[in-house]
Write a structure and sequence with these properties.
- This is Transmembrane protein.
- Keywords: Signal.
- It comes from Shinella fusca.
- The protein is α+β, with helices and mostly antiparallel strands.
- The protein has one domain.
Length: 89
């Protein structure tokens, strides 16, 4: 019985995270994304091209969103991963 309960909790925990993909393997910016409304005005001049960094914010529904960005050769940013976490508690 305990194993069934633990398995159900584990399955529920895994379904609490969702990942969405946009067209062409890239993601479309959503409100809260660094690139929402266009590229940032400041360029990341010291960061190596191809390096990645993360950004965490909450969407309009109160869900935590974790995005990963990659720096392109022209110093623009592209979203390469997005995970939306839904809190069931």
């Amino acid at each position: 019985m305990t194993r069934i309960v633990l398995a159900a909790i584990a399955a529920l925990s895994l379904t609490a995270c969702t990942t969405a993909t946009g067209t062409g393997g890239s993601f479309q910016p959503i409100p809260g994304s660094i690139t929402y409304g266009g590229q940032p005005r400041t360029k990341l001049t010291k960061a190596p091209i191809g390096s990645t960094f993360g950004h965490t914010f909450y969407d309009s529904r109160g869900r935590q969103v974790d995005e990963t960005y990659r720096i392109q050769p022209d110093r623009s940013l592209v979203i390469v991963n997005r995970v939306t976490r839904i809190d069931y508690l």
